[in-house]
Write a structure and sequence with these properties.
Length: 367
């Protein structure tokens, strides 16, 4: 699978688009926002920028989330400048994603974004300049020492490629309790290679003392089959297996399809950063989020509806995976059928157990 050509979110104008089904990533981004703002303030205190501030957002996708992090960064800068009585710097923003990303919908939203910034910060001009930088963040993207701050949310768990698996991962599309040990080892090695490449590439592009904050999906325990990272893919596997049992897809096609995705344990993230050596970790935290971002168990007025929750989760996963499924299984795979089954299975699971996504946020300073 050529990830750069097939991993893309459904475009914004479509009903199953990521833009319309990305409440979970939005909640994750907002959860990490206090740390993002804290590291921007740390940069300001180090006086690493004066007239301009360059920031890159890796894996921006499309829709309302595309400029959410950038809005937080600019808000932090404007707030500091107001407190200190300083003129705000010009902010250069680079939105990065793979070439197939729906950048046009992002560009269309920018005039409204600029107007909101001016209203919120009570200025005539935002001094903010946004452009796109298509390409894989596992390689160089920007000139040497050109960035002050790099952010990424819910993108780094996507690998540059499906690992080279020494044996078939029968009946599953990701790591599972039924997978051979060699499958787990291959996924870990691919993550280590990719994450090392990301760090070394950004080390060339970020100024010494610059900052990077990454949030990615992970797992809470060393066991790579942890339910908080693998279970939502297991139910997608079961949906495809159901269809194979009915003769709608081939077993061999399921066995040969694996996702370019890895959910690391926190210590695996730390180990790669320390081994690569270009960054100092200044903060590492974890948190959990419900699969259904609209269900809150601590809210007495919020009633669980397994059918509704199943559809919400299915719509989010579909917006991310449909392009890969079509590329592998062909147009004969009826997506509505796949995700109706997936919604049912997920809803039944959540009716029994409210499994959560486990997330890792790491803040680093360029040495």
């Amino acid at each position: 699978m050529k990830v750069e050509s097939v991993l893309q979110m459904i475009h914004a104008h479509e009903p199953n688009s990521y833009a319309r089904n990305s409440a979970l990533p939005r909640n994750v981004m907002l959860k990490a926002m206090p740390l993002v703002k804290e590291r921007v303030r740390a940069l300001y205190r180090k006086a690493l920028f004066d007239n301009y501030f360059a920031v890159a957002d890796l894996g921006c996708s499309s829709g309302p989330n595309s400029v959410l992090a950038i809005s937080g960064v600019i808000e932090a800068i404007m707030g500091l400048c107001s407190q200190k009585g300083h003129s705000p710097p010009e902010v250069l923003v680079f939105l990065n994603d793979l070439p197939g990303n729906d950048f046009n919908s992002v560009f269309t939203s920018l005039p409204g974004f600029y107007e909101k910034l001016k209203e919120k910060n009570k200025v005539n001009s935002t001094n903010c300049f946004i452009s796109a930088m298509p390409g894989s963040f596992y390689a160089r993207l920007f000139p040497s020492r050109s960035l002050h701050f790099v952010h990424s949310s819910y993108s780094v768990h996507w690998l540059s490629q499906v690992p080279e698996l020494p044996e078939q991962n029968k009946g599953s599309i990701y790591m599972a309790s039924t997978s051979p040990l060699s499958i787990f080892q291959a996924y870990l090695k691919q993550f280590q290679r990719d994450f090392t490449s990301l760090l070394s590439s950004r080390a060339e592009e970020i100024v010494p003392g610059g900052e990077m904050v990454l949030t990615l999906m992970g797992r809470s325990i060393p066991d790579p089959t942890s339910k908080d990272c693998c279970l939502f893919w297991w139910w997608l596997s079961r949906s495809l297996v159901e269809m194979a049992d009915e003769g709608l897809v081939k077993d061999t096609d399921i066995d040969s399809f694996n996702l370019p995705f890895y959910t690391p344990y926190m210590e695996e993230v730390r180990d790669v950063v320390e081994a690569e050596g270009s960054f100092t970790i200044n903060h590492l935290e974890t948190f959990e989020m419900n699969w259904d971002p609209f269900y809150h168990e601590d809210d007495e007025s919020c009633t669980f509806d397994r059918s509704k929750s199943g559809r919400i989760v299915a719509n989010n996963i579909r917006s991310v995976t449909e392009s890969m499924l079509r590329s592998h299984f062909g147009d004969g795979l009826v997506m509505d059928n796949v995700f109706e089954r997936y919604a049912r299975l997920v809803g039944e699971h959540l009716d029994v157990e409210k499994t959560k996504h486990f997330s890792i946020t790491i803040s680093m300073t360029r040495k």
